[in-house]
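I am writing to request your help with a piece of structural work I have in hand. I set the record out below, with my sincere thanks for your time.
___
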Amino acid sequence: MSGKCQHFIPRFLQSGFASHTNGDEIFTWVYRKDAQPFNTNIDNIGVESHFYSQDGDSQADDNITAAEGRFSELIDALRNGSEEATADSGELAELIAHLEIRTRHLRQSFSNTAGVVMEEMLRFMADQQAFGGYMKRRIKNDPSFMRDAIAAELRKHNFPDSLLPILLNVSLSQPFLEQMLPSLLADLSLMTDQFRAALPHMLKNASKSGHIKALKQTISPQAKTDQYRALKFCLLRSTEVMLPLGDSSIIIQLNGERPFKTFSEKDDPIQSVYLPLSPSLVLVGSVDDKIPDISQIPMAIAQCSLEYFISDSRSSANDALHTHIGERAHLLTQDQIDNLITEVMNE
């Protein structure tokens, strides 16, 4: 067990981006969204109290801590240019799958996306005219939609089953609905306001619980490991392109409209996966033997970072990247969210 303060970006990865050291202490530059860059000890970066623990349950943290020794040794071997390390696609695939799912970036992205979708739904439900029209259409097209819910509620109050058909026919009749719906919608508007106020806390707890539950099952999902094992891995060194490390650890290049992501899905057309190891060294896994152009990777890292990236230096190049943090960091694009909500409303 690693203790109370738990790193979601491992220190063995951050150490490759050191600006300087002081004895055993390692320092780096932090470029945080909407804040001035600052230099600090990596002990203070990518860390959160009890990030992998909840209600005294430390299993996820224990599992991650147990694996970090061999992952750290693998990173050291890669930085030393070990051909044996780059040849072991299984070990590399497991490392990448692990780094992909362990971060605050992923947990916060799920929470943020759910929050946006829920807010759009609540806004729709608070619109009495729009939501009232939706309810009328839904009841007309599928009477059982309301019938089962009303029947269950009446049974709670010990209404006899013999009377349920009469009560349901009255409550679902057009005159009754026309009369009662405005009052029900007004009550619903008040309920949505109350729910909206509680939503941030609910989403934070739900995303943490879900993330920890997934990590307790596996710290390197087999489906992702198998997907990445099929890639061809190599190390690319550069003296011209200086790489930062984003708060997602890895970035994924796709063949499609969205060029980069931080979390892969089953049918994503993956072209390459990038894991920066130092400002001048990156591990690349690609679908073919073609050497990728990494000149666009620093910008992709900044855009895919949700909250911050780190670097070994304060530079004009990093200052330029700083303004682009978060531009492509979310799990779903706004168009995808809009389409999702439209599908629900048109159901």
